[in-house]
């Protein structure tokens, strides 16, 4: 199983929201450079990674916009 980056952010809170969304769909998530969230500056920010066989599903969940949301 190879991990693929499906999202990058400099915002630790945003990375946690994405992780939570993917976790709720039973997708294994790895946050690369998560130490950035602890206040340690890391070039490139935080990378949200998932197994290569779940990339399409993960990207669809990340891009999903709730039609009921304002």
CATH superfamily: Hypothetical protein rpa1041
SSE order, one letter for each helix or strand? EHEEH
CA radius of gyration: 12 Å
Average of pLDDT: 86
Shape-level CATH architecture: 2-Layer Sandwich
**How many extended strands?**
3
Q: Percent of residues in helical segments?
A: 25-40%
Total domains: 1
Unreliable spans: none
N-end to C-end Cα span = 38 Å
Q: How would you write the strand order of the largest sheet?
A: 1-3-2
Explain this structure to me?
This protein has a three-stranded antiparallel beta sheet with strand order 1-3-2, covered by helices on one side. It is an alpha+beta fold. The protein has a single domain, classed as Alpha-Beta Plaits. The chain has two helices and three strands.
Main attributes of the structure:
single chain, about 70 residues, alpha+beta, Alpha-Beta Plaits, three-stranded antiparallel β-sheet, 2 helices, 3 strands, globular
Short description:
With 70 residues, this protein is an alpha+beta fold. It is 30% helix and 23% strand.
Topology diagram in text:
Elements: E1 3-9, H1 12-23, E2 30-32, E3 46-51, H2 55-63
Antiparallel strand pairs: 1-3, 2-3
